[in-house]
Amino acid sequence: MDTPIVRPIPPLTRLKELARRSEHDATLLVSDGADRVFVQKLVPAETANPEVWDALSRTSHPALVRVWQVDREPWGLSVLMDYVPGPTLEQVVEAQGALAPKDVVPLIGQVAQGAAELHRLGIVHRDLSCANVVVGPLGACIIDAGIARRPGPDTKRHDTVVLGTRGFAAPEQYGFAETDPRTDVYALGRLAAFLLTGLSPASPICEEALDDPAVVPAPLRRVIERACSLSPADRPATALDFARNLERAVGEGSAEAHRPERPTASPAGHDGRDRRPTAQGTIHPSPAGTPRGGGAPPAWRRRLATAATVVGALFCALMACGLLMTPSHPGMGKPLWDFQCLSIGVCMGLVPGLLTRWFLRGERRFSTARHPAVLWVALLGACFVATLLLVGISSALFEG
């Protein structure tokens, strides 16, 4: 299906500021003379690459945002492009949790097609992250090419200055080598890991979730690990190769899941989530919650986690500030009184608040623990015991 031709008609009116890092580094929502909405991106001279934007203005691939106008300014570039309505992949996962493999494959396939078109134009994107892909009316669409480059003499220099998104950027973007299309293959692997686990690839627990076959089937994990190899030579040669490997791995994972020794009585996953594909490939949240080891928690758990952190921090501040200003206990020295107040504030306020936050949000070790509630209670008990020990030992040492 071709993208409809909707050229902007001057004059442009600024509607909203979507993002801004500096005066000439911003993303704006604008409307034209016909009240149609577009995006205007301001790119500073130090990161601007007019050749990339000019090349993008000559393609109309549905997996790439349509670029209408590239104006050169003394401070850099002003780029006018289509506004693609829809959530980013980051927002999809935040709202719905980790996605089923059958939902991930078409999304990654569409992003891979967009990346392949960029590579055909001689462009390396270098920032294929969950925030730069929107699920629009025509499917997944890459919406930003702010640090994309055409390989050349200055590529490595730029790689050491602009690294892309942490967790998605390939090792060579840190100055170890020159970027090429396999840099984007690495990012596609990290993007697939994010969608399957619901966890940021920058988090160490993402790797733990990937190693859990209940979260990511082994065939999928192997394909992702190869795409995310440290050496570009060990990765699939093209983005489309990776997408095809991922699709085949889903078939292998489905075959393993239907072996007689592992029967399933319903289309629900191991956590009770409905894994059946929905009409027209639309992704919908599953009411039963998110799978262990991945996914964004429900809104009420996030709010409760924030409240627990705030309460813990306030209690710690009360002990550290309020009680430190009160007279010490008769017969107890001021340093001992201060130490015990701080110990109680940290061990009975701040640390339990953080543990409760991580438990409710399914972060860190709680995301992969077999019994997260038991782990949470055990750690709270350990905080209480640690407080008693600190108070008792300090009293014995100072008073002795």
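[next item in queue]
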Amino acid sequence: MQGGDGDVSFDKNSFGAAAAIASSEQMLTSAIHSMELTQGVHIQIANLGIGDGGHTFSMVDTVVEVLRRKLAVINGGTEPEFEVYFSDLRLSNRFFSSFRPLEDRVNDWGKKYYTYGTSLPFYMRLFPKGELHVVVTTSALQWLSLIPRKVMEKGSKTWNKGRAWIQGAEREVVEAYAEQSHKDLVEFLKCRKEEIVVGGMLFMLMAGRPSGLESQVSDDSRLKLIFTTLMDQAWQDLVDEGSIEEDRRDAFNIPLYLRNTEEVTAAIESCGGFKIEKMELLKIADPMNARQQEFIKDPDSYGRAMANLVQAAQIKRKVEAYLGPDLTNTFYERYAVRAANNKEFLTKNSFYSMIAVSAIRVWY
């Protein structure tokens, strides 16, 4: 995701993630209360897949405060000390900029917890065995560790020609993504199984899709527009202008897969060692719905908002690494123009689907 404070930063475009975190807070709180903790004065927490800015810390603040109250009773009033570790899918400038708000928070409220960062990706072991009491991850696990190798085989049934994502792609392409998604989630869970103490808690919040929906997104999701229609049109503009060849366009793929609850359950059961306390599909109203009239009056502002939104996700860094900075700027200019001329989601409300899961670490 894009770091920094500019118009395309994650912090200024993460209103969907913020809404999902707010919607799942009660579930997170209940999960913490369900933990069977004995006396503890040294609690270790990990936030894996951090977002830039305040959203990174709001969920951690909730975890720390609920645990503080819970342990104050267990410990007979003794205040525990908290250590919080942060990691991301990949090392980037966004990872380092995520720590900037900490100074202000410490000045405002006093030091609530000690913070550390690890630059290693969360699809691998990060901590010693039985080290962590709580692990939270938000809006990160939908991103794959890599593009499935099958999808990069030109001319094969899994070659995703003419598309940047898998919405509307051939069945073989979607299956390759689903296979990689399962592998990634199982690996993530196996690592956390080793690191979380028995009785500890794992809380996952990830973009998902409703059960029974074969496509990645429903018709009322703006993601269909963001990652499919506008993305493919902008790539085609570069091809038509002679800036890139078709093969170069076809070789770019977005490593994003939206699981349903059955796929998440299958990965947890395959891993073992976790008991699902609760799993819920959340339907989050798109905050951009409230700006429809504004965007209808000023389509160019809508185009810029959509281009900023897609850049704030993992996408800008991937496009820039693929095309270079100059052509990337051209790409997003074309994207903004295409968005400004698309009225599909200016006359109806849009929603995001998120899967929230709380699981307790158990012996088996």
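[queue empty]
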